[in-house]
Predict the structure.
Amino acid sequence: MPSEEFIVTPWEVEGHVDYNKLMLLFGTQPIDDELLARFQKLVGEIPLMLRRQVFFSHRDLDWILDTYEAGEKFVLYTGRGPSGQTHLGHLMPWMFTKYLQDVFGADLYFQMTDDEKFLQKDELSANATRSFSYDNCLDLIALGFDPEKTRIFLDTEYVKTLYPIALEVAKRITFSAARAVFGFDASANIGMIFFTSMQSAPAFLPSILAGRNVPVLIPCAIDQDPHFRIARDAAPKMGYYKPALIYSRFFPSLLGMDKMSASLPDTSIFTTDTPEEARKKISNAFTGGRPTAEEQRRLGANPDICPIYDLYLFHFFEKDEDVAKLYNAECKGGNILCGEDKQRLIKIVVDFVKEHQRKRRQYLDKAREILQVG
Ligand code: TRP
């Protein structure tokens, strides 16, 4: 594959992703200054994830804000494919979802697609994806989602509610549309081909439960767009609003690839990592640094390709001034060495993970109760 090319599907991210090209390819819109100004006006600030363009693209976000301004409440929907432990890359979009829940007072539907991960991953049994669902659910609850406004469900358990909706979607999607959107070849198992209708279903659930059309906003990483192109095609045929989307970039891998991956453990910091494990992974991480300290001091380093910089940018530096200082003076200006920069980050990340684990432990017995069944 030539280096300027890349592949993004819900099940594969490969190559160096050019997000501007990806928006053109998928047909999604950038989150522009006008939208940011509307956020400022509606909620009194531009949240970090939007200011720093972690969430950078959308479909119909302007329409969601129109309906909100007109006094209509929207519902949030997002999800998780439980294929392993949760890592920091998963937490960031969930934290942003929680922020949206708080500022807009929105209900949230959260789908655990244990069916998807069972179908997709040869090595995972149905029991494994189910138990990862319970485990991942602890991470979600630990973030403090309002239990009154949040429904978390596991596909294989909530199937009685989801299946009739999935059937309505499935009947309206041809195999050739699914193949074009997901790139299936003849070796794909038939469960994977049907699965997208299960991921579409929760986008229509709020309308079905309310007995009227309800606007839905889905925060997620942009690799999920193929599913929601399908859902949006089916929506008017089923008499529903098209779901709106707000898309994030991928959380960078510590080894310098484009996406943190749960299947390559050293690329990600898991919420269950010990301080020692987190320390080791950050210490070994790829950076945009120079081969020698002398060169770095003289020429500066490259934050644009550096996952350590990205961790600060995506979450760990709250103040924009700190990010700007790191980018310009410290990193590009050659005033900090990567080792020092990593030591500083290790402290912050270890504290964050410890605190998260403390909250997570409180809910150990709760996950089973909280997940919706039937
Ligand atoms: N397919 C997603 C994943 O593999 C999980 C998911 C289900 C999801 N429904 C969603 C993600 C809605 C975002 C929005 O992680």
